[in-house]
């Protein structure tokens, strides 16, 4: 086995623990509130409502993508997953310090659980998105196509990318406190240079190769294609996303393997 | 029996801590700009363990003792696989459970039931094994009524019991225990010890790290004494504990002798106490004494002018303030006649029948009506040590006798049985 991929093999062996830790995060988060787990659905619903209102009455919506609020929704939800998972990963060894120092658990389960918890949130929110698409389709403003079936594979590749990055971010933030802030700022920047608020078509032709340099750009363009335009993802995009996922897994795995031994000493 | 492979094998292990930057966290700047005095290499490496080698057979109970910073916890974490040795090898065969901190990782917001499941997974149990042992874990911890309450509502004792119960029922081949019995109440400590004995009978290997020397001497067959990262001694627990105690008593103990911890002092000064000492069997000043051994309390006194009315007295008080013993020359029926110049007053005790613990000494010289010339409270503190952890303050000479069908394991206990 290729050494940088070893952490993922151990994750597979520890999947019951990863699941339990992720569900612990979710349960602990929603317990006690009167609406409990419903908040996982209410939050994205309210978000959709805000977008619909703001872009109807305050800002002029983009004319090239209608309905704009629906266009925004998929990208914004997926971005919440990416940025939430990476920011949680940056915190995970700090908040789980006692476990890391005092138990014999394999440390990679913590960033993996952070990613999984955020993924579950996304999946719940996607149910709201699906309902919104159904409503829009019933009113004739969009016409869903089979290309939507490609979305799960896009999400799988995105999740793999996020997992690799999360391992690296979590490991590095144990050694360097700055990583947390750098990640937060990079994510804010990345939000605007990723096609979330706008379609790729809105980017001038000569800048588009540059957009490719942002690893998330292709993913989010694919999300727009599958969930809004209902256009199949191009072969080039598949290749690009697979490459990004593999690079992130190998890179994150390498950083993790290099620094793993000192995690319990430093956290 | 001797054909069984060792459960733990530690060979020439060195552990050096190197810190990247300073705690709590290094920063990228400090890593990138090493010339600034906060660089990656700014913290000197610390050698926590230096060439440690030992083996432990399956079914052996091993105690690890030593001063703070001697490397005990580092050794335990290496055995647990939480840390890796800088050099040398550590191998543990079979399933391992580490009781390094009871209830580590309990999430306060979720229920006891959910926490049991996660803690079990953390210890390497499968979901099925957890389900099978669940009832037993909960019963042992005694938290049946609170199972579905969030752990934040538990008392610290309940959380500790639950944490212990999970680990103790995780069916470990090797169980590592770090000082965890210091928390929790007497009844729980007792049950925990019973559980350890059960595991040992089943041929499990137990490793204890503790400052509780009587516990190690009593509980373990073998002990390793670590001194600044090296194995200072390795052998039968009672013997190693005794040697370690002697070492501590001669090293650290004597420095405390005669040192007044700053206790209160009242009196007219007509006569005064210039020094108070505690003497051990050989008449040497000591800060630490063994229970049951002879001891003497001694004070050096001076009279500013010749006196005909004087009383000398001593009081032994627990740290909590309870008077254990107080006596003076008047109570003994001695009637004063004359005291002038300097004198030495010694109260000899043929046997110091105190339970292990720390005690404080008061010394006084006063008039027969109680008016103090010099009354010194808490003039020195001393520690009484014993291999038997008797409760209370009195540890009398004693024997046990048993009539009827009662048997004990060969060579256990220190008092005579018949």
Secondary-structure class of chain B:
alpha/beta
Give the percentage of residues in beta strands of chain A.
Answer: under 5%
Q: What is the C-alpha radius of gyration of chain A, as a whole number of Å? A: 19 Å
Give the N-to-C terminal Cα separation of chain B: 31 Å
Mean of residue pLDDT values of chain A: 89
Q: What percent of the residues of chain A sit in helical stretches (DSSP H or I)? A: over 70%
The geometry of chain A reads as globular
**How many whole angstroms does the radius of gyration of chain B measure?**
27 Å
**Main sheet attributes: strand count, strand direction, barrel closure of chain B:** 6 strands, mixed
Ends distance of chain A? 28 Å
Structural class of chain A: mainly alpha
Secondary-structure element series of chain A: HHHHHHHHHHHH
Show the largest interface: A-B, 31 and 37 residues
Structure description:
The complex is a heterodimer of chains A (267) and B (418). Chain A has 267 residues and is mostly helical. Helices cover 74% and strands 0% of the residues of chain A. Chain A has 12 helices and no strands. By secondary structure, chain B is of the alpha/beta class. Helix content of chain B is 23%, strand content 33%. In chain B, α3 packs across α5 and α7 runs antiparallel to α8. The longest helix of chain B is centred in the middle third of the chain and has 20 residues. The radius of gyration of chain B is 27 Å and the shape is elongated. The two termini of chain B are 31 Å apart. Classes of the chains: A mainly alpha (267), B alpha/beta (418). At the A-B interface, α2, α5, α8 and α12 of A face α1 and α3 of B.
Brief descriptors of the model:
heterodimer, A: 267 residues, mainly alpha, 12 helices, globular, B: 418 residues, alpha/beta, six-stranded mixed beta sheet, 18 strands, 33% strand
Map the helices and strands:
The complex is a heterodimer of chains A (267) and B (418).
Chain A: H1 6-13, H2 15-30, H3 39-58, H4 68-95, H5 97-102, H6 109-138, H7 151-175, H8 178-192, H9 208-212, H10 215-229, H11 235-259, H12 263-266
Helix pairs in contact in A: 2-6, 3-4, 3-6, 4-6, 4-7, 4-8, 4-10, 6-7, 7-10, 7-11, 10-11
Chain B: E1 6-17, H1 28-32, E2 46-57, E3 61-65, H2 72-80, E4 87-92, E5 96-99, H3 112-122, H4 127-141, H5 156-168, E6 174-178, H6 186-201, E7 205-209, H7 213-219, E8 222-227, E9 230-236, H8 237-256, E10 265-266, E11 271-279, E12 288-290, E13 295-307, E14 311-318, E15 323-328, E16 339-349, E17 357-366, E18 372-385
């Amino acid at each position: 086995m290729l050494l940088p991929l070893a952490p993922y093999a151990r994750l597979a062996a520890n999947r019951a623990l990863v699941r339990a830790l992720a569900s612990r995060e979710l349960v602990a988060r929603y317990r006690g509130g009167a609406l409990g787990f419903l908040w996982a659905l209410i939050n994205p619903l309210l978000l959709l409502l805000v977008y619909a209102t703001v872009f109807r009455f305050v800002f002029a919506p983009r004319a090239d993508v209608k309905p704009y609020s629906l266009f925004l929704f998929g990208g914004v939800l997926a971005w919440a997953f990416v940025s939430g998972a990476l920011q949680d990963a940056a915190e995970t060894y700090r908040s789980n310090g006692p476990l890391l120092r005092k138990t014999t658990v394999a440390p990679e389960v913590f960033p993996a659980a952070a990613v999984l918890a955020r993924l579950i949130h996304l999946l719940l929110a996607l149910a709201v998105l699906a309902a919104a698409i159904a409503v829009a389709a019933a009113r004739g403003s969009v016409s869903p196509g089979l290309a939507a079936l490609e979305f799960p594979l896009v999400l799988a590749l995105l999740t793999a990318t996020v997992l690799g990055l999360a391992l690296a971010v979590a490991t590095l933030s144990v050694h360097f406190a700055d990583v947390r802030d750098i990640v937060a700022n990079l994510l804010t920047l990345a939000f605007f240079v990723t096609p979330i608020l706008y379609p790729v078509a809105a980017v001038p032709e000569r800048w588009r190769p540059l957009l490719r340099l942002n690893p998330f750009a292709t993913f989010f363009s694919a999300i727009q294609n599958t969930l809004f335009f209902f256009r199949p993802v191009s072969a080039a995009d598949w290749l690009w996303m697979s490459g990004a996922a593999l690079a992130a897994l190998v890179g994150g795995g390498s950083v993790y393997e290099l620094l793993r031994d000192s995690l319990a000493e430093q956290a | 029996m001797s054909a069984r492979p060792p459960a733990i094998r530690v060979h020439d292990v060195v552990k050096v801590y190197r810190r990247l930057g300073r705690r709590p966290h290094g920063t990228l700047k400090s890593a990138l700009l090493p010339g600034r005095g906060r660089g990656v290499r700014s913290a000197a490496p610390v050698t926590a363990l230096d060439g440690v080698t030992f083996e432990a057979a399956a079914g052996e109970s091993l105690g690890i003792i030593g001063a703070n910073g001697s490397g005990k916890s580092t050794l335990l974490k290496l055995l647990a696989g939480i840390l890796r040795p800088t050099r040398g090898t550590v191998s543990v065969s079979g399933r391992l459970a580490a009781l390094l901190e009871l209830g580590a990782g309990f999430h306060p917001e979720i229920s006891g039931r959910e926490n049991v499941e996660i803690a079990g997974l953390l210890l390497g149990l499968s979901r099925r094994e957890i389900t099978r042992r669940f009832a037993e874990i909960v019963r042992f911890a005694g938290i049946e009524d609170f199972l579905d309450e969030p752990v934040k509502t538990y008392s610290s004792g309940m959380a500790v019991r639950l944490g212990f119960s999970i680990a103790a029922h995780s069916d470990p081949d090797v169980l590592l225990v770090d000082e965890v019995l210091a928390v929790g109440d007497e009844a729980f400590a007792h049950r925990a010890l019973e559980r350890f004995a059960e595991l040992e009978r089943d041929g499990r290997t137990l490793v204890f790290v503790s400052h509780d020397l009587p516990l190690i001497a009593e509980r373990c067959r073998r002990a390793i004494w670590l001194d600044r990262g090296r194995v200072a001694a390795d052998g039968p627990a009672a013997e190693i504990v005794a040697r370690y105690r002697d070492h501590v008593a001669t090293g650290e103990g004597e420095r405390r002798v005669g040192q007044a911890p700053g206790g209160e002092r009242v009196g007219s000064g007509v006569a005064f106490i210039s020094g108070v000492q505690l003497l051990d069997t050989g008449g040497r000043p000591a800060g630490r004494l063994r229970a049951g051994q002879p001891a003497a309390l001694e004070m050096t006194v001076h009279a500013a002018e010749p006196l005909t009315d004087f009383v000398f007295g001593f009081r032994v008080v627990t740290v909590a303030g309870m008077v254990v013993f107080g006596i003076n020359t008047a109570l003994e029926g001695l009637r004063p006649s004359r005291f002038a110049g300097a004198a030495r007053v010694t109260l000899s005790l043929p046997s110091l029948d105190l339970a292990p613990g720390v005690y404080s000494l008061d010394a006084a010289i006063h008039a027969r009506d109680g008016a103090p010339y010099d009354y010194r409270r808490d003039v020195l503190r001393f520690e009484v040590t014993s291999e038997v952890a008797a409760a209370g303050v009195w540890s009398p000479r004693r024997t046990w006798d048993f009539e009827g069908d009662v048997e004990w394991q060969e060579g256990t206990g220190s008092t005579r049985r018949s």
